[in-house]
Write a structure and sequence with these properties.
Its EC number is 4.2.1.17. The chain is an alpha/beta fold. Helices cover 47% and strands 13% of the residues. The longest helix has 17 residues.
């Protein structure tokens, strides 16, 4: 039996992991690619020593240009079963990784590709590269993306993107908060520098910070503050805080163990 082609590759660099999409020049979202991406994400979720994950488009022209439209016709009446629910699960699993995640966008991130990027905590965009949701040109909808982008940029700007399908350029993406960093040459190289910085910080504090920020989007203020109290106690119980304090007084870089 022939081996399925590798459409997603995972590369580990110490405590940093990179997920590279490898599905042709446009990295189109297909069921096969999603299946491999989900496997990669689930494997990383079980690795407590990984402190940061970078998602990027590998050698392709696009970070990810969206869904493969050729898959639409055969699933017309069974789309929820054959595509929508499965794709939503993969996006949720990516967003729920407990360590910080970065999307390094060196080529267009459109439609389902931009949905992938929005599931990451931070986005690094190469100057001159656009992002957006062009689905309305085909009468389609980026459902998952509509929810995530509205929480990021607000309802008016989200509707503008979804109603018009216009692509957002680098400067506007940075101004709106769709991108955290803009790279003049390589988004991946900048993402690696950001990942190095993140991985040098306290891994427990980073994971708890991510959890608090995510939960605070949905919880009442009092419930979120109660959760923050528990998180702070977990920090004070950790070896990492003791190491950080000792390093501060000894004027050296801390060596965090993640415990």
């Amino acid at each position: 039996m022939a081996t399925a082609p590798a459409l997603v590759q995972t590369i580990r660099r110490g405590v940093i992991a990179e997920i590279a999409l490898a599905n042709g020049p446009l990295n189109l979202v297909t069921r096969a690619m999603l299946r491999q991406l989900n496997q990669a994400v689930c494997e990383l979720a079980r690795e407590p020593d990984i402190r940061c994950v970078i998602l990027h488009g590998g050698d392709a022209r696009a970070f990810c240009a969206g869904s493969d439209i050729r898959e639409f016709g055969p699933i017309r009446h069974d789309a929820s079963e054959q595509k929508i629910l499965f794709e939503d699960m993969v996006l949720r699993n990516l967003a729920r990784l407990t360590m910080p995640t970065i999307a390094a966008i060196d080529g267009p991130a459109l439609g389902g590709g931009f949905e992938l990027a929005l599931c990451c905590d931070l986005r690094v965009l190469r100057r001159g590269v656009s992002v957006g949701f062009p689905e309305c040109h085909l009468g389609g909808l980026a459902g998952n993306g509509a929810v995530r982008v509205s929480r990021l940029v607000g309802p008016a700007r989200a509707k503008q993107m979804l109603f018009t399908g216009e692509q957002i350029d680098t400067e506007r993406a940075l101004d709106w908060g769709l991108a955290n960093f803009v790279a003049d040459i390589s988004a991946l190289e900048m993402a690696r520098k950001v990942a190095d910085t993140i991985s040098a910080r306290g891994p427990i504090s980073n994971r708890l910070a991510k959890e608090l920020v995510e939960q605070s989007q949905d919880e009442p203020l009092d419930a979120a503050l109660l959760r923050s109290t528990v998180a702070q106690q977990n920090i004070f119980d950790s070896d990492d805080l003791q190491e950080g304090a000792a390093a501060f007084f000894q004027k050296r870089a801390p060596v965090f163990s993640g415990r």
